[in-house]
Amino acid sequence: MRVQRVVLPEGCGVSWTVLGADHTPIEPIEAWLSHLSNVGRSPNTQKAYATDVRDYFLFLEQRQISWREPSLEVLGEWSAWLRSPLVAGGAVVAFGSRGPRCGPATVSRKLSAISAFYEFQARHGLDVGQLRPMWQAWDGRRAGGSWKPFLTDIGPSRQRRRQVQVRVPKREPRLRTAAEVQSLLDACDRLRDRFLIALVYSTGIRIGEALGARHEDLVPRRGEFRVVARDNVNGARAKSGERTVPAPPELMRLYADYITEEYQALDSDYVFVNLWSGRRGAPVTYASAHDLARRLSRQVGFKFEFHQLRHSYATGLLRRGVAVEVVSKLMGHRHVTTTIDTYAHLSDTDIRRHLEAVGFFENGFFGDQGVML
């Protein structure tokens, strides 16, 4: 059983499927993955979900359990199995000597995928029995019905709660200091790569939004970069729709240098294209961007990922007192709570600076409130 990449006809991108032992798609999985593709889920999401449901089917196969007989007990066993130590060859190992198969965040994602898989099958007649409460809509006050209206998946998602859950430790986003970003910029020997890093750092856009950028999206006279949702041949996606982000003059000057010295008269709508390897003029892919990140990591001496620049942008705005609603808009978050949950983190230095600003360390701070220490 394996996950297989599928190239769609007529340049419609890629999709994913799961092949069985006979090298043909597994029908219930294929139907669900086709549905995800039809409602516009990204290829990366499809791949992740295909991997999750394949792992679940392999688990069922080992236990000789039919996928048509789901139960909370089976999902609970699968969750425990995912979190158990990975043991080679069935050998017994001491506790703590091996790490778990999956971390909490991965286990939670896999449970979400299987929940969505069974919800889809239930709509097509499968008796899901006791799994039905897994999809109760939750509005913060009371649980609603199990079923969602027609075409719900195409519209905004609603919060749902699962009966089988895994607690995921909250991790603060990894940031890069100004000095570290400068070292990344200085390590670039191509203006294209330098401009890519500068664009993500100074606008907070996602790497997919950068790779899908067209020349018309940059408006130098207004100092703007426009994120536009469109189909891109390199698979890049604007995850959260369209928005306009202010861009500093230095970024626009770097863009002009890149076009003048490297891009020159190349006929392409895409901003970031292959110039020295691959098919000249073809848009840069995710894989090429990740290769660049790995090369720069070796040069600067720390692990660099493009999303760190986005985190640094948002955190820098919040530390400067920009309202969280404004930051949420700039980041392209659908809900301000996403911004609050992700970026409402303060270091010890930040906390002390804010306390100093309100006079916490002054002798009269508590005295003004009638309290003498």
List the helices and strands and how they pair.
Blueprint: E1 2-7, E2 14-19, H1 27-38, H2 43-63, H3 72-83, H4 104-123, H5 178-187, H6 191-203, H7 207-211, E3 218-219, E4 224-227, E5 243-246, H8 249-263, H9 286-300, H10 306-319, H11 324-331, H12 336-343, H13 348-357, H14 364-367
Antiparallel strand pairs: 1-2, 3-4, 4-5
Helix pairs in contact: 1-2, 2-4, 5-6, 5-9, 6-8, 6-10, 11-12
Characterise this structure.
With 373 residues, this protein is mainly alpha-helical. It folds into two domains: 2-87 and 97-154, no CATH class; 172-373, Intergrase catalytic core (hpI Integrase, Chain A). The protein is built from 14 helices and five strands. It has helices spanning 27-38, 43-63, 72-83, 104-123, 178-187, 191-203, 207-211, 249-263, 286-300, 306-319, 324-331, 336-343, 348-357, 364-367; strands at 2-7, 14-19, 218-219, 224-227, 243-246. It has a three-stranded antiparallel β-sheet, with no helix packed on it. Helix 2 (43-63) packs across helix 4 (104-123). The longest helix has 21 residues, at 43-63. The radius of gyration is 25 Å and the shape is globular. The model is unreliable at 88-97 and 135-164 (pLDDT under 50).
List keywords for this structure.
5 strands; about 5% strand; two-stranded antiparallel ribbon; hpI Integrase, Chain A; about 375 residues; three-stranded antiparallel beta sheet; mainly alpha; globular; single chain
Task: Report the biggest beta sheet as strand number plus sense, adding barrel if it closes.
Answer: 3 strands, antiparallel
The total domain count is 2
Mean pLDDT over the residues: 78
What percentage of residues falls in helices of 4 or more residues?
A: 40-55%
Alpha carbon gyration radius: 25 Å
Strand order of the largest sheet: 3-4-5
What is the class of the largest domain in the CATH system? Mainly Alpha
**Shape call:** globular
CATH architecture term of the largest domain: Orthogonal Bundle
Number of strands: 5
Q: By helix and strand content, what is the structural category?
A: mainly alpha
